[in-house]
Design brief:
The structure holds two protein chains of two kinds. Chain A is an alpha+beta fold. Chain A is 49% helix and 16% strand. Chain B is globular and about 75 Å long. Chain B is an alpha+beta fold. In chain B, helix 9 packs antiparallel against helix 11. Chain B has three domains: 116 residues, Acyl-CoA dehydrogenase/oxidase, N-terminal domain (Butyryl-Coa Dehydrogenase, subunit A, domain 1, Orthogonal Bundle), CATH 1.10.540; 115 residues, Butyryl-CoA Dehydrogenase, subunit A, domain 2 (Beta Barrel); 136 residues, Butyryl-CoA Dehydrogenase, subunit A, domain 3 (Up-down Bundle). The chains are: A alpha+beta, B alpha+beta.
Chain lengths: 378, 410
């Protein structure tokens, strides 16, 4: 038993923290919140050089080939920013979908440019009948003259605006096996005629609507070269990707918690630091309890995945706990900060926005709670 | 990271040794009642016999030095002893001896070599069972305001006062307490920490009936007592940590009592509740097939998983000698508050069955009924949930730049 990070992980953590501090100061983060891609070409080049877009991609495909826990250490530090951009969509979820669903030739074609940051993947699954279950997928791809033709709308696609390529889940055959069969993942060039990406306005960032209007996709773009089995690849990839997303949220929770503690020491009211008031302390203690619950459920799930243990119930547990913890930690930070917390330039709302925006990604807490019961065979 | 102990061949050999030893040494006819308050004197004596046998082997308090009765085992070996005992629903120590666990640690940290030689071996060998005497009628959460006095008179201290919520069903050999040794000194600098033999003249012990009759199950709340001291003379040798230094000695056992040692045991009530729901049929379907009960089960599972991880995290910090801060009191806070919430979810899921230990209708031999009570009683021992939060706040440094340090365990 050893619940500490390895030396290599500590080193990674420090180097990511240094980079984020140097390249992502608060003004940059505030500006990037309103940039539809969440990243600039200059930053993209730098992070690609560091290998962060290929952190879980095997070395054979040009990636870093690091463990999921290593990737989580990276993402926890990104979450502290919180650093936006297609790190998760492309480098983790997209890359893992290709790894689990692609043919050898597809992996060799797709993963190296993804690791180099030349390609950015977006994963387009959900639609207007929102949800992360196969029965929520309705968009159909028809086969005409040797290629697929796509018509329809994918909604709430994360980081589509940054994507050069979309992994698009569509129905290519009749639904069976609880609707999970019949879904294929097509690799679609985001610049293909008929693809239009529109970033959704409001209190979310880097979440898009993707419209497909008679988009022609070559027949060999189906991942795995077999139709109808895309959902399985997606589920396998999601199981590994979810705890890395959770780690990002843990980092964001950690940052919000530290902001609240610092503020409790410096903000004077009634002649003393507000942190001397037990009602204020209660908010911060609630935050650290949520933070630690998120942290340890997340890292245990990662350990189970990395060590080849059955991990499904732990992954669902981590997602259910962490996504709610992220909301509650930010709530607590706002209780402590009051007016200052909602001044945009203070920076807390970056975390609050992320906590809400990421909440439904890959399934909201209620969905994962139910999956716990299924995974435990109740 | 590694959330599990990986065993070397040497450790697996040790496991085989422990397993075989337990088969030979667990006293015949040992039975554990569901409600520890039902533990008979005869059964208690069997547990004490097991404690003495473990103690003779060095396994009762296995991490401590051999010269004091320990076996100098590392955490991974101790876990093996705990796991093997757990197969019998037993643990270290196998009866209520939090006085020995907490007091032993305090003497180990703060005692002189002579005091360690004198007091530690009988505790660590299971010859003494020890009660801790902390609360008083007017000193609960504000423990440092105790009023019981021990005034130096020649080679003795003379104790007068009253302690409450003490002990368990079947008596003890030794007690320890914090008392005022100098009423003229300022708060926190006026206390002494004393070891007191149980049978001294002037000590009167009267029972207090609480919501759980509890008794001898580990540190679980039990039948408690009021202990009166009427001019009880104790040798000055028994003062641990020096004159007026009792509050600092107390930081060691308070740290442990506030959860600083961690927990690695399974929560049997939760395990059995979940199994009960998947196996008990009402109107042709199992409880777990009812969507509402299923949601309740998940809620209990999540709370308990977080509790397990907080316990494991704190256990690792403590046993791997890592820096500790707010984690112990956080574990204590979480354990107490979540036990109460879990008890209420169980009541919701199971219904009034959870409130009876009737032989025909009470589930799990009355385990759930007992839990309804013990979850309420469990809120206060070792510091209320509010006290845990106060300590957390100080250690996190909320509203203060200087962070309070955790109590010494070594």
């Amino acid at each position: 038993m050893d619940l500490g990070l390895t030396e290599a992980q500590e080193l990674l953590k420090t180097s990511v923290a240094d980079f984020v501090q140097r390249e992502y100061d608060k003004n940059t983060l505030l500006a990037l919140e309103r940039v539809p891609t969440g990243i600039t070409p200059d930053l993209l080049r730098k992070v690609a050089e560091l290998g962060w877009l290929g952190v879980v991609i095997p070395e054979a495909y040009g990636g870093e080939g690091r463990s999921l826990t290593d990737a989580a250490v990276l993402f926890e530090e990104l979450g502290r920013g919180p650093v936006p951009g297609p790190f998760f969509a492309s480098g983790v979820l997209g890359a893992l979908v290709v790894q689990h669903g692609g043919t050898e030739a597809q992996k060799q074609a797709i993963l190296p440019p993804v690791a180099r940051g030349e390609w950015i993947l977006g994963v387009a699954v959900t639609e207007s009948d929102y949800g992360w279950r196969p029965e929520k997928l309705h968009m159909h791809a028809s086969m005409e003259h040797g290629h697929y033709v796509l018509n329809g709308t994918k909604l709430f696609v994360y980081d589509a605006k940054a994507a050069t390529h979309l992994l698009c889940a569509v129905r290519t055959g009749p639904a069976s096996n609880g609707a999970s069969r019949g879904i294929s993942l097509l690799l679609v060039d985001a610049s293909a005629p008929g693809v239009s990406v529109r970033t959704l306005p409001g209190w979310m960032s880097q979440v898009d609507e993707v419209r497909f209007d008679n988009v022609q996709v070559p027949a060999d773009a189906v991942l795995g070269a077999v139709e109808g089995r895309g959902w399985e690849s997606l589920e396998t990839a999601a199981l590994q990707a979810i705890p890395i997303l959770c780690a990002y949220q843990v980092g964001s929770c950690q940052a919000a918690f530290e902001m609240a503690v610092a503020y409790s020491r410096t903000r004077i009211q009634f002649g003393q630091p507000i942190g001397r008031f037990q009602r204020v302390q209660d908010h911060i203690i609630g935050m650290v309890n949520h933070l630690d619950a998120a942290r340890w459920t997340t890292y245990e799930a990662l350990w189970k995945l990395d060590s080849g243990r059955p991990a499904a119930s732990s992954v669902h547990l981590a997602k259910a706990v962490t996504s709610e913890a992220h909301l509650k930690v930010c709530d607590g930070a706002h209780e402590v900060h009051a007016g200052v917390g909602v001044i945009r330039e203070y920076g807390l709302t970056l975390h609050t926005q992320r906590s809400r925006t990421l909440y439904p990604l890959l399934g909201e807490a209620r969905f994962h709670r139910r999956r716990i019961a299924d995974a435990l065979g109740w | 990271m590694d959330f599990e102990v990986t065993y070397t061949p040497e450790q697996e050999a040790f496991r085989a040794e422990v397993r075989a030893w337990l088969v030979d040494n667990i006293p015949e006819g040992l039975e554990q009642p569901v409600d520890p308050g039902d533990l008979s004197l005869e059964q208690y004596q069997k547990l004490r016999e097991l404690g003495r046998r473990l103690g003779a082997k060095g396994w009762l308090f296995p991490t401590y030095p051999k010269k004091y009765g320990g076996e100098e085992l590392s955490v991974d070996f101790v876990m093996i002893v705990e796991e093997e005992l757990d197969r019998y629903s037993l643990h270290l120590p196998p009866y209520y001896d939090s006085g020995g666990r907490l007091g032993g640690a305090s003497i180990f940290v703060w005692g002189t070599e002579d005091q360690k030689q004198h007091f530690l071996p009988p505790i660590f060998r299971g010859e003494w069972r020890t009660w801790q005497l902390l609360s008083e009628p007017n000193a609960g959460s504000d423990l440092a305001s105790v009023q019981t006095r021990a005034i130096r008179d020649g080679d003795d201290y003379v104790i007068n006062g009253q302690k409450i919520y003490i002990g368990s069903l079947h008596g003890c050999e030794m007690m320890w307490t914090i008392v005022v040794t100098d009423p003229d000194r300022p708060r926190h600098e006026n206390l002494g920490w004393l070891m007191i033999p149980y049978g001294l003249p002037g000590i009167t012990v009267t029972p207090m009936e609480l919501l759980t009759a509890g008794g001898e199950g580990g540190a679980s709340p039990g039948l408690k007592h009021t202990v009166f001291f009427d001019s009880v003379r104790v040798p000055a040798f028994n003062l641990i940590g020096g004159e007026n230094n009792g509050w600092r000695v107390a930081t060691t056992h308070l740290e442990l009592e506030h959860g600083g040692g961690g927990i690695i045991r399974r929560n049997r009530v939760v395990d059995q509740f979940l199994e009960y729901c998947t196996t008990t049929k009402r109107n042709g379907q199992t409880l777990s097939q009812d969507p509402d009960v299923r949601d309740d089960m998940v809620e209990v599972f999540i709370k308990n998983e977080i509790l397990r991880l907080f316990g494991l995290r704190t256990y690792w910090l403590s046993h791997a000698h890592k820096p500790r801060s707010y984690e112990g009191p956080q574990l204590s806070y979480w354990r107490k508050t979540q036990a109460l919430e879990i008890a209420e979810i169980i009541l919701r899921a199971v219904g009034p069955y959870a409130m009876t230990d009737d032989a025909q209708w009470g589930p799990l031999n009355g385990l759930l009924e007992h839990y309804q009570r013990s979850a309420v009683v469990g809120l206060h021992p070792g510091g209320t949930t509010d006290i845990q939060k106060v300590i957390m706040a100080r250690r996190i440094g909320i509203g203060r730049a200087e962070r309070e340090q955790a109590g010494r365990l070594r």
